[in-house]
Specification:
- The protein has 131 residues and is mainly alpha-helical.
- Helices cover 62% and strands 5% of the residues.
- The chain has one domain.
- The protein has 4 helices and 2 strands.
- Strands 1-2 form a two-stranded antiparallel sheet.
- It starts with a strand and ends in a 14-residue tail after the last helix.
Amino acid sequence: MNEFSTNAQNRLVDHDASESERQIAMWMHLSLLGHLVAPIIIIILPLILWLTRKDDSPFVDDHGKETLNFHITLFCYMVAIVPLLAVLTCGVGFVLFPGIYVLGIIGMICGAKAAHRGEYYRYPMTFRFLH
């Protein structure tokens, strides 16, 4: 049976999550850096890690779903901004694009740190495609 508690940030902590589970969850969050190599990596890598380990660990299952939801949400935001870049010349699209990028980087770092500490994490402004 998993032992849970909350920390100072009021996040649920899984004390039974092994170091391996924490590392896998952390790498799922850090897979967002894969966009530097090939954009498809940000979906494929966490999807493979999640599908292969979700039945073994509720911790990995939760982080995998949260990571995929966040990465898909960021993709949706980027797709929605493309028409703004083309239509609006007042700079709105040019402000939103870096804002989404910063949201992704900060969210990725916070998620990876939480996973490494054994905490459950929820990204802000994320659509919940997977439950």
